[in-house]
Specification:
This protein is of the alpha+beta class. The chain has one domain: Hotdog Thioesterase (Thiol Ester Dehydrase, Chain A, Roll), CATH 3.10.129.10. The protein is 17% helix and 39% strand. The protein has two helices and six strands, in the order αββαββββ. The protein has a six-stranded antiparallel sheet with strand order 1-2-4-5-6-3, covered by helices on one side. It is globular. Keywords: Cytoplasm, Lipid A biosynthesis, Lipid biosynthesis, Lipid metabolism, Lyase. Its main location: cytoplasm. Its EC number is 4.2.1.59. It is an enzyme of class 4 (lyase). This is 3-hydroxyacyl-[acyl-carrier-protein] dehydratase FabZ.
C-alpha cells in the first residue's frame, strides 16, 4: 500500500517524466489513483482535433482500437515504473511481449473520456503481466491481457 506521503494523482507533466511518448502518441492525460504493485486508474480525454480522426473515419470519427490498446499499455508502463519507484532514463525501453484476449465492446468517439484500469497479475523474470480495461461512462470499451518487459536500449534488439 502507498504510504501517505506518496502522491496518488499525476498530472500530464508528471506523466511525461515516466513515459517517453510525446504528442501525438502520449495517450494518458491524468492518473487518478494507483497502488504500488497492484493497480492504477488513469484517463485519456478523447478530442476531435486528434490527428487520427482525420482518416479514421472522416464521416464517423472513431478512436482506432490499436490506440486504445496503446493507451492501456502506457498506463501499465506507468504502474510498473511507479511500482519500482523509479523514472526511466533515455536508455530504458518498455516493449509489448504479448496481447491476449483483446475484446472491443463499444466505439470511442470525440468527447469521450476513456477511463483505464490496469492491474498487475504477475511479475517474473522481467515480464510484467496485467489485466486491463478501458471504459467510457461505465461501459467497457476494450479489455485485454497485456505482457510487457523493460529493457535497456542496448538490449532492446535482443529477443524477449
Amino acid at each position: 500500500m502507498n504510504s501517505p506521503d506518496i502522491k496518488k494523482v499525476l498530472d500530464i507533466n508528471e506523466i511525461k517524466q515516466y513515459l517517453p511518448h510525446r504528442y501525438p502518441l502520449l495517450l494518458v492525460d491524468r492518473v487518478l489513483d494507483w497502488e504500488s504493485g497492484k493497480t492504477i486508474t488513469a484517463i485519456k480525454n478523447v478530442t476531435v482535433n486528434e490527428e487520427f480522426f482525420n482518416g479514421h473515419f472522416p464521416h464517423k470519427p472513431v478512436m482506432p482500437g490499436v490506440l486504445m490498446i496503446e493507451a492501456l499499455a502506457q498506463t501499465a508502463a506507468l504502474l510498473s515504473f511507479l511500482t519500482e519507484g523509479r523514472k526511466p532514463d533515455e536508455n530504458t525501453v518498455v516493449y509489448f511481449v504479448g496481447i491476449d484476449n483483446a475484446r472491443f465492446k463499444r466505439p470511442v468517439e470525440p468527447g469521450d473520456q476513456l477511463k483505464m484500469q490496469v492491474e498487475i497479475t504477475r511479475r517474473a523474470r522481467g515480464i510484467w503481466k496485467y489485466t486491463a480495461v478501458a471504459s467510457v461512462d461505465g461501459q467497457v470499451a476494450v479489455e485485454a491481457d497485456l505482457m510487457c518487459t523493460m529493457r535497456s536500449a542496448a538490449d532492446a534488439s535482443q529477443s524477449a
